[in-house]
Design goal:
93 residues; mainly alpha; 2 helices; 97% helix
């Protein structure tokens, strides 16, 4: 009889709902415990990434300027060379 009563109590929807909520909270606690142990390292990693991207942004400014200068020089060189080649072809005729 006692076993049947215990089974009936455990099968009650209110008991089942509380059990479900307990499982949900336990699952959340796993996540919260992980957050609690990892947050400092995550913040440090994030701050390192911020510093890296600030540095890259500063480097990019000078690299873009340098690349544009090289592109202008190469385009000018190509223009001059193509004019010289065209002149050579015209003189060969």
């Amino acid at each position: 009889q006692a076993k049947a009563n215990a089974d009936a109590v455990n099968a009650d929807p209110r008991i089942l709902a509380i059990g479900k909520r307990i499982r949900e909270i336990n699952n959340s606690m796993l996540k919260f415990n992980r957050w609690n142990t990892e947050w400092e390292q995550k913040v440090e990693d994030f701050e390192n990434r911020v510093a890296t991207w600030i540095e890259r942004g500063e480097i990019a400014k000078s690299k873009i300027s340098e690349a544009n200068k090289q592109l202008r020089n190469l385009k000018d060189e190509r223009q001059t060379l193509s004019e010289n080649i065209a002149q050579e072809i015209a003189n060969a005729d």
